[in-house]
Write a structure and sequence with these properties.
Blueprint: H1 2-16, H2 35-39, H3 43-52, H4 54-57, H5 72-86, H6 97-112, H7 119-122, H8 132-152
């Protein structure tokens, strides 16, 4: 009986490998609404955002090896979809001025209290864990950018 159950699970595992979610990969360069294109952060800030945020919050994800194995790819797809619904770096410029201010404020909060990036992301992406000095650089730039945008509107 145990052999039949294990065989059934093995067959199910093989079968689900053929059901793949669509990947979040764009070959187009970032457009004018992209956060980095629109706000031109310094290279250090740009690198931090791309390392820790862009995989789930942009139109172009760098997929790890386990994205090829189900059900891991489904789990990743759900995280990416949720992340883009919450905040899209690729579509930041399309937000209204009020929504941009609100999103920047939320971004500062979640980075500052280290709830983003998610622990499940940093387990695999160790380079997305920033030092206190790096966080200070990032948050200082985000706050200055928030003030600049507020002055423009």
């Amino acid at each position: 009986m145990l052999k039949k159950i294990l065989l059934g699970f093995a067959l199910l595992f093989v079968a689900i490998q053929f059901v793949r979610p669509e990947k979040n990969v764009s070959t187009a360069p970032p457009g004018p609404d992209d956060f980095i294109v629109r706000l031109a952060p310094p290279p250090e800030v740009k690198a931090m955002l791309q390392t820790a945020c862009y995989d789930c919050h942009s139109d172009n994800t760098r997929y790890p090896w386990y994205a090829e194995i189900q059900p891991g790819a489904w789990w990743l797809k759900q995280h990416i979809d949720d992340g883009q619904r919450e905040f899209s770096f690729s579509g930041f410029g399309a937000y209204s001025a009020k929504k941009q201010a609100k999103k920047l404020s939320a971004l500062i909060d979640v980075i500052g209290d280290r709830t983003m990036p998610l622990p499940s992301y940093t387990w695999v992406h160790r380079d997305a864990i920033f030092t206190d000095a790096q966080l200070k650089t990032l948050i200082t730039w985000l706050e200055a950018t928030q003030e600049k945008l507020a002055d423009e509107n």
